[in-house]
Structures are given as structure tokens and as C-alpha cells.
Amino acid sequence: MTGMSQSPETTVPLLEISELRARPHNDAGETTDEILRGLNLTVLPGEVHAIMGPNGSGKSTLGNTLLGSPEYEVTGGDIKLLGRSVLEDSPDERARAGMFLAFQYPQEIQGVSVIQFLRQALSARKGIDLSVLELRLAAMEWMQRLGMDSSFVDRYLNEGFSGGEKKRNEIMQMALLEPEIAILDETDSGLDIDALRIVASGIREVRTDRPSMSIVMITHYQRLLDEIQPDVVHIMVDGRIVESGGLELAEKLERDGYEALRSQSRA
Fold first, then answer.
1. Maximum CA pair distance of the chain?
2. I want to staple 170 with a disulfide (CB 3.0 to 4.6 A). Which of 20, 101, 102, 253 is the partner?
């Protein structure tokens, strides 16, 4: 069920998650309950997957675990990027390999401008040491596409940014860093309908420029799905994917809620 035809050369999964189990890391050595409990997901190049689920289902834990956050400990299963396990890789190594996470709540970094951050990130990701002028010119195109003022890149990263500015900044980073796969953790959170449409338009334009890039969107709401039109919709409950389908599955959720799926997960 994919909206993009796959040639024989691109049938190897870009991202393959198998029986993934994870729990919060505890420095005190105390045992904590697993949040991810045997999750499976396969994403081919160029595909867009949406993951929906109630609060506490493990959606954001999945995003952070994929990027190797030290706040979570993998207790079982595997994560493979282009056929290679990344479990032993640091977050920086995963980012260099082509994984990108757009955070639900991007952090402020005082004293570091957006353009300084982008320059360092590009150097780490692609080994490219662009001048500030070259990077500014590249960023200008995307700022225009995303409805951002040209002075935006001179501001300190996320300091005083509105919710929409934070999310548009994340999409600009995604466009310039050119990851193999982008994990968008509730990119629609806190956005009004106009800001959502601008962000969604930016995502579509990045995909047009790089059709082989895959996206995993984590969201609560159908409205982002209406704008992006994912290839597959997954429902996550209690740390597992319990059902997958097309947009009709999101429409069913909008109508009926999660209760039936919670019962199915516990059965």
C-alpha cells in the first residue's frame, strides 16, 4: 500500500523496526516498565507513514528511541537503517547516517544563531563546510517557501520563537540537511490551521525535491494527514502497532475513537 511505485533497486527497506522494546533509562538501576512492547514497522524509500495513537501509547518514545536518546534503553529487538543495525550508534552517528527527528518541543539554545546551528549540522551530516554567505543563500529559498522573514536565521535558535516558527524552522533544517528518513514528532502540535498549511506545504516541497526521502509522521490529528496524504496509517496502542491501513483508518478513528482498539490490544 504505497502511493509511490518502487523499482527493483529500492525494495530494500529504508527503515526496519523489528520487535522493538524500550523503557525509560534509570541511572539508579531500578527496573522501569517498558513503553515500547514489541513494535514492528517497515518503511520503504519514498514512503510516508503516519503513526496515530492515544496519549501514553509510546509515540514520542518511539521517535526518541529511533534517534538514540540516552533517556531510553532498548531492551529487545532491532532498528535497521538501509539494512544495518543502528542500535550501537550514538545520536550523532544516526543523524550522519541520514536519520532526522523534528521534535515536538524544540529546545532553545541561547547564543547560537539559526545559521550557526545549520552550518555545524551540515558539516556533521554531509561534511560540507559552507560559508555563512553560501548557507544564507540556500536558507533564503526555504525561508521564502515557508513564509519566514529573511532575518530569521540570525535569531538565536528557538529563543522567543512562536510555535509555528519552531515547526517551520524544523522543516527548513530537514530540507537543508537532506536526511534519508525524517521522523516528525507531532509537527502539527500547537499550530493553527494557517500555520499547519504552511508547514505541510513545506513538507510536500521537500518531498518533491527529494522523492526518495521517507517520512514517519507521529500525530494525534487527521488534519495533518489530510494535508500530507500518507501512504500508510498505523494505530499505536500500549507500545505496539495494532492496526495499519489507509486514510480510511484515520477517518474511522476520528469517528469512533480509540476505545475499541484499546480493547483489541488487551485481548
1. 59
2. 102
